[in-house]
Amino acid sequence: MSAESGLPEGWEVRRSNTKNLPYYFHPATKDSRWEPPSGTDPDKLKDYMARHHSSKGVAPAAPQDGKIRCAHLLVKHRDSRRPASWREPRITRSREEARELINQYLQEISAYEQDSNAGKSLPELATAESDCSSARKGGDLGFFGHGDMQKEFEEAAFKLEKGQVSPVVETASGLHLIQRYGRHSP
After folding, report:
1. CB–CB of 131/85 below 8 Å?
2. How many structural domains is the chain composed of?
3. pLDDT digits (tens, 9 = 90+) for 136-172
4. Which of 38, 52, 93, 160, CA to CA, is 20 to 30 A from 63?
5. Whole-angstrom distance, CA of residue 146 vs CA of residue 168
6. Is 35 in the same domain as 115?
7. Does residue 74 share a domain with residue 27?
8. Model pTM?
9. In a 3-state reduction of DSSP, which class is residue 134?
10. Are residues 87 and 164 in the same domain?
């Protein structure tokens, strides 16, 4: 156990570049998570976080120049750069199976866009189905600018009109549906 942070041996606290939030990382195993690993001393961690990772520098609630806010739904496959998620510790579906799944989600979102009593919204689906930890926030990624996301994701997101949902976007992380926040967005 690390005497200062209260984390189990080998674990450290890092800050996410995209979300500007602290997360827990084990360099030897490459394991990363948003929640503290088991065996953490909660009192020591709370004190450590207050001293070293306080809210100074947390992303603002309002956009900065050139930044946009989006939500997304991610479907990973076994060839994704990290084939695991909060839902599944080991993702074994093929890229083709992932594409079928995300196309079903796109159909549900399209149905919802036509009639809110049919289908489901992207945030509703992301909460239950996304392989990204942003699922707990309805897929909300907060504000980001150029250079903050993977190239393919960023290019698609910045082309969207407010409220618009993208077609399927493929990155090293998997397959995404992206919705830019705006007047018609959740």
Report:
1. yes
2. 2
3. 888 999 999 888 899 999 999 999 999 999 999 999 9
4. 52
5. 20
6. no
7. no
8. 0.65
9. helix
10. yes
